[in-house]
Recover the amino acids of this structure.
C-alpha cells in the first residue's frame, strides 16, 4: 500500500525500453540473471543455502525440532515456512512483524514445497498422535534487487535437499519444485524481474512446477491482470526454466 | 438441513467404499458415475444466490451464497483516510479486509487476522484494483470489509464476488464487475466450484477472478497438482464459472436498481 513514488520519468523510460523489446540490463525477456547457490553456508542449521539471483540475495535455513502433530494428521511431521523481508535488504522494508508481502512470500514458498509433496511427512512421525518431527524452513531476504520470490523458493528447496540430521541422515525429501516469476509491463511478459522492472510492473505471476510435469502452485499479484493465453504461455516457460534450474543443486 | 444431508451422503459414501473394497481405509469416493457427492456434474457450479444492498449503514453491501459458503461484504467510502499519512495524493487507496468469523467453520477459528486472511485480503485487493477507477477519488480510502459467515470451501471467491457487488452498490466507478469462481481436481477429475468435502480430499484448487468484459484474469492462485492439460481445463472451467457468476451479479444489481425510474445518483428513488 505504501507504494514507492516513482518519478513518472523513470516509469516512462523503463516502459519505453521494454516496448522496444529490450531490458535495462540487456537480458532477453525470458532470461534469468546469473543464479548462484551456495549450500551449507550456515553450519548451525541442519540444511542451509544462500541464493543469489543477480544482486538479490536470500538466506535459507532448515531447522528440525519435535512437536505435537496436528489432530487431522496424527502420523505426520509438521512443516512450517517463514519469510522475513529484513530492513537491511531495501530502503522500503520496515522493521516489525511480517507484513502482507512477507506473509505472501512465506505462503507461496510453503505451497510449492507442500503441494509437490517434497517431504515424506509420514517418515517424520515418532509416536503417532503424540510426537513428530517438525521441519522449519526460514527464508531471509538480505538484499532485494527484484524477484525475491524465486530466490527464496530456490533457497528453500536447495536447503531442504542439503539438510542432514543425526537421527536419520538425509531428510526424506524427493521432489524439486521450482518457482518462476513473470511480470507484465504493458503487453510484454518478462521473466525474473529486476527491482526497476518490478517498480513499474502491471501484474506479477509466480508459477511453481515439479519434475513430473505438474503445476503445483500459482500466485498472481499486483494491480494488473493476465489473459488465459498469457498464463498458458508462462506455464510453458515455467516448465522449461524449472527443468534448467533443477540442475543447479 | 442442507448440511446434514450432505454429511449423510458422505457417510453413506464411506460405508459404500468400505463394503466394496474390503480394505478398512479405502479412499473416500468423491465422484460416482460421473456425478459429484452433491449430484453435480463436473462443470456445474453450486446454487448461487447474490443480493445487493443488504446492510443499512454501509455505502454499499452484498450477500453471496455459493452453496453452503456464505459471505457478506460492505463498502465504506470514498472517505477520508485514517491514518492520514497512508493517503495517496493522486488516487484513492483500496483497503480490503477479509475475515472468517469464529463459528464459520467446524473447529472454532480464533477471531482476528491470521497469515491466511492477510494473504487473502491482499489477493482480493489486487483482484479488484484493476477495475476500480481509483484516480477518480484522490486522497481518499475505499474500505472493503468481507466477513465469511459460513465456510464450505471457496470462501475467497464468494467474498470477492460479494465485494464486487458491494462496490457497484456503493456507486464506485469501475470498468467492470469482477466475478470469481474456483476449479479443482477431485478423484482425478477436473471440477468447477469445489465444495468443502471436495476441497479437503481433492488434489488441486484453482481460484480465479475475471473481469468478464475484457476476459482479464485479476486473481489467480493455485495449489495441488495439475498437469498442463488439466490446468488448461481447470482454468477454462473456472473462467466459465466466473461468467455464470457475473450474470447473477448483474441480476442482483438490476434487481435493486432496475425498477427505479428516477435516478438521483444515490441509487434511491
Amino acid at each position: 500500500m505504501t507504494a514507492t513514488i516513482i518519478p513518472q520519468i523513470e516509469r516512462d523510460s523503463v516502459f519505453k525500453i521494454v516496448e522496444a523489446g529490450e531490458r535495462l540490463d540487456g537480458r532477453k525477456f525470458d532470461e534469468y540473471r546469473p543464479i548462484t547457490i551456495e549450500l551449507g553456508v550456515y553450519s548451525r542449521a541442519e540444511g542451509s543455502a544462500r541464493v543469489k539471483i543477480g544482486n538479490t540475495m536470500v538466506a535459507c535455513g532448515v531447522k528440525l525440532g519435535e512437536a505435537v502433530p496436528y489432530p487431522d494428521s496424527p502420523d505426520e511431521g509438521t512443516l512450517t515456512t517463514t519469510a522475513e523481508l529484513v530492513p537491511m535488504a531495501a530502503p522500503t522494508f520496515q522493521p516489525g512483524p511480517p507484513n502482507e508481502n512477507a506473509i505472501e512470500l512465506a505462503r507461496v514458498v510453503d505451497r510449492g514445497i507442500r503441494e509437490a509433496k517434497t517431504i515424506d511427512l509420514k517418515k517424520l512421525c515418532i509416536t503417532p498422535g503424540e510426537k513428530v518431527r517438525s521441519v522449519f524452513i526460514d527464508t531471509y531476504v538480505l538484499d532485494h534487487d527484484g524477484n525475491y520470490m524465486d530466490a527464496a523458493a530456490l533457497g528453500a528447496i536447495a536447503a531442504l535437499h542439503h539438510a542432514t540430521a543425526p537421527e536419520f541422515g538425509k531428510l526424506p525429501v524427493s521432489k524439486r519444485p521450482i518457482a518462476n516469476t513473470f511480470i507484465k509491463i504493458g503487453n510484454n511478459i518478462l521473466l525474473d524481474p529486476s527491482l526497476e522492472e518490478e517498480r513499474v510492473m502491471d501484474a506479477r505471476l509466480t508459477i511453481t512446477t515439479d519434475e513430473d510435469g505438474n503445476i503445483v502452485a500459482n500466485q498472481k499479484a499486483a494491480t494488473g491482470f493476465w489473459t488465459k493465453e498469457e498464463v498458458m504461455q508462462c506455464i510453458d516457460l515455467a516448465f522449461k526454466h524449472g527443468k534448467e534450474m533443477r540442475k543447479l543443486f | 438441513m442442507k448440511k446434514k444431508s450432505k454429511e449423510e451422503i458422505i457417510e453413506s459414501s464411506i460405508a459404500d467404499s468400505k463394503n466394496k473394497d474390503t480394505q478398512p481405509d479405502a479412499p473416500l469416493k468423491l465422484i460416482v458415475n460421473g456425478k459429484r457427492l452433491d449430484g453435480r456434474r463436473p462443470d456445474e457450479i453450486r446454487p448461487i444466490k447474490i443480493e445487493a444492498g443488504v446492510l443499512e449503514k454501509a455505502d454499499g453491501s452484498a450477500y453471496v451464497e455459493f452453496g453452503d459458503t456464505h459471505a457478506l461484504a460492505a463498502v465504506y467510502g470514498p472517505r477520508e483516510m485514517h491514518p492520514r499519512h497512508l493517503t495517496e495524493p493522486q488516487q484513492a487507496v483500496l483497503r480490503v479486509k477479509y475475515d472468517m468469523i469464529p463459528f464459520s467453520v467446524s473447529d472454532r477459528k480464533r477471531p482476528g487476522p491470521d497469515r491466511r486472511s492477510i494473504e487473502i485480503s491482499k489477493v482480493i485487493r489486487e483482484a479488484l484494483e484493476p477495475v476500480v477507477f481509483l484516480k477518480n477519488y484522490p486522497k481518499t480510502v475505499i474500505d472493503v470489509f468481507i466477513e465469511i459467515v459460513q465456510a464450505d470451501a471457496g470462501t475467497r471467491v464468494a467474498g470477492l464476488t460479494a465485494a464486487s457487488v458491494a462496490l457497484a452498490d456503493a456507486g464506485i466507478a469501475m470498468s467492470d464487475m469482477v466475478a470469481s469462481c474456483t476449479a479443482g481436481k477431485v478423484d482425478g477429475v477436473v471440477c468447477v466450484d469445489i465444495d468443502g468435502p471436495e476441497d479437503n480430499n481433492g488434489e488441486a484448487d484453482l481460484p480465479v477472478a475475471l473481469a468478464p468484459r475484457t476476459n482479464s484474469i485479476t486473481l489467480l492462485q493455485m495449489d495441488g497438482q495439475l498437469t498442463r492439460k488439466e490446468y488448461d481445463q481447470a482454468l477454462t472451467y473456472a473462467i466459465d464459472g466466473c461468467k455464470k457468476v457475473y450474470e447473477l451479479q448483474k441480476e442482483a444489481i438490476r434487481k435493486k436498481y432496475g425498477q427505479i425510474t428516477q435516478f438521483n445518483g444515490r441509487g434511491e428513488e
